[in-house]
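Supplementary material to the annual report.
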Amino acid sequence: MEPFIRLRGVAAPLPLPNVDTDRIIPARFLKRSRADGYGSVLFHDLRYDAQGRDRDDFILNREPFRRASILVADDNFGCGSSREAAVYALQDYGIRAIVAPSFGDILYNNCLKNGIVPVRLDQVTVSALLRTLLEGCDNHVTVDLENLLVMLPGGEQKTFDIDPFWQECLIKGIDDLELTLGHERDIDQFEARYYAEQPWAAL
Amino acid sequence: MMAMSAAASRTLFDKIWDRHVVLARERGPSLIYIDRDFIHEGSFHAFADLKRRGLSIRSPRHVIGVPDHYVPTRGRSAAEAASSDIGKVITRFEENMAWSGVRHFPLNDPRQGIVHVVGPEQGLSLPGLTVVCSDSHTSTHGALGTIALGVGQSENAHVMATQTLWQLRPKALRINVRGSLSSDVSAKDLVLTIIASIGASGATGHVIEYAGPAVEALSMEGRLTLCNMSIEAGARCGMVAPDDKTFEYLYGRPFAPVGALWDTAVAYWRTLPSDPDAVFDREVEIDGAAVEPMVTWGTSPEDALPITGAVPDPALFASPDRRAAADAALSYMGLRPGTLLEEIPVQRVFIGSCTNSRLEDLRAAAAVLRGRKAVVPGLVVPGSTLVKREAEAEGLDRVFREAGLEWRDSGCSMCVAMNGDMVGPGERCASTSNRNFVGRQGPGARTHLMSPAMVAAAAITGHLTDVRRLRN
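Predicted assembly:
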C-alpha cells in the first residue's frame, strides 16, 4: 500500500448527499479484472452521456478538477453496496483523500485498505468548502494525516479524527493482512479455546 | 453460581463481540474471530489477492460459496448466462471454488440461492456467531441474533486467510417498535418507515438492535426482511434477540447443531438477549400501530412515504443540499410534486431479492394475485432453489403464471441487474428489492420499493396501489 503522509492537491466538489456506490461505479462494470483499471469508469453515468461523451456539467470533466486528487463530498458518501470496486475506481482515477461529513461504513473501511484517507469534517465546514470550491479560484486543499489537519482554501485549518491504528497503517503503508499473519499463534490459541467452549459453532 | 453483581450490563451485540475478541488494543480496532464467511462471484478480487500473496484458505469448512449475483434465472448453468462475459464470472467462481476447497453450493445444487437466503435456510448462520459476506445485505443474518457484517473484498481476503477481521466496535442503537403492526402491513413496510424516520445515514457507525413487541411478533422471515435493510439506514449491522421462535426456525436445519450440542447451544443462546439495564448510545421509538403500506418516490430508500400520500415538494425540504437532491431525484424519477402516489403508473414489477424472496413473501404476493391478472410484465424470482420447490409444492408458481408473471430460478436477478435481468431506461418498476438508487435496476431505470403484497397490487392495476383496496 502506498504510504500517505501529507497531500496538497486539487479538490473536486461533489455537492450531493447519499452518493451510493452504484453511482461511483455502476454494477455492469464490476466484471472487469483489476488489471484493466477502473479509473475510466469512475462515476460513469454521471460523467458520460449515453453516447459515451463527457458530460460538461460533471465536475471531473472540468478544469482544473480533471486532475483532482482530493474529493469533497456530502453526507453519507459511498453508502449502499459493499463493492470495493468503488474504491478501486477512485484510486485508479488518482483520488487519494475524500472529505465528507459522513461515509458509508463499508466504503470507509475499503478506503483504509487501499491507501485512501477518508476525512470526516462537520457538515457546516463541508457545506462551506463545497461552495468555496464551486465558486472560488483557489481549489487546493491539503490533507495532513500525520497531524490530522486539513488546510482549506484561504488558509483555514481544521482538525479531523481517524483511528490511530488505521492512521499508522496509512502513514506507513502497512498491510493489515501481513500484520495479522504475524499473530497466527494468537489465532490458533483463540480457536482451540473457543471451540472447546462452544463446539456447536464448528461446521 | 458466580456472583453477577460485578458484571456490567451488556447488550446482545456486546455479549457476542466479547466472545470473539482474539486481540484487543488499548485504542482502536480489535481482532475479531469470524465464524462464517459467505462468498459469491464478486470474490474474484479476494482470490486474486490471496493467490498473489501465495496464501490459502485458513478454514475452508467455514467459508461457504454460493453463486447468486450473476446467475441466470432461466437455466442453471454458466452456459445459459445472459452473455459470455457474465458466464465467465460464474465459471471463474467455480474455478476458485475448486482451487480453494471451500464449502460450495453450485448453481445446479438444490441448496443454491441468494446467499442471505441460503445462510439462515441451511442453519449455517446461528445465534451468537459472527458472520461476514462481501455484500452489504449481510445484515440480514442478524435476524437470528448474529453479528453479521458486510465487508469489501480486501476484508474478505483477510477473513479467508486468517478467519479474523480488524474491527472497531460500533455504537449501539436500539429501535423499539411498540404496539403491534396492523395485519395489512409487513416487515418491509416497517423497515421503510424506520429508514424514512431516521434517514439513510441515520444509523451509520451503529449496530441496530430491533426490539419491542412488534418486532418480537414478527415471523423469522419478517425479521430477516427487517434486518436486511439495516444497511439502507447506514447501520453496520442489524440484530434481533434470539427467542423460541428463532430456535424453532433453526431446529433440524441441515447445518444446525444436533443432539446434546443443540441443547448446549440453546442454553447459551438464551443468555444472549441484552440485559434489562443495558445501555445503548441511542434509542429510537417507533409506533408499530401507525405503520402503513409504504412506497418510495425518490432515489434513496429514505424517500419513503405511506401509499396514501403524494410526491413531496422539494421546496419544503429543510436544507439547500436536500432540496437539490430531491429535485434531482424527482427529475430522474419523472415525477411532479403533489402527484398522488397511487396515480403513478408502472411498466414492470419485480418480486425477489434477499429482502423479499422467501416463502412468506411469495405467499403474500400470491394471496393478492390469486385469480387476478397482471396488466404489466414482471418477474418472480424465488430466493433459493429450495424456496422455489416449496412454493411449487403449494401451487404458488401457478398463481404467478396464471396472473401473467414469469416464474424464474433463484438469484439476485433484477435487484442488482448484473445477470442481464434489467429494467429498461425510463421504465418504472414496482419492486420488492432494497435499493431505488439511480441506475440500480439498469441504466435509466426507475424503481419504487415496496412490499410483496404492494407489488402484487401494482401488477394488477398498473399503478402504485394501496393493497388494502384489493382485499375484500
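Residues 1-6 of chain B have pLDDT under 50 and may be disordered.
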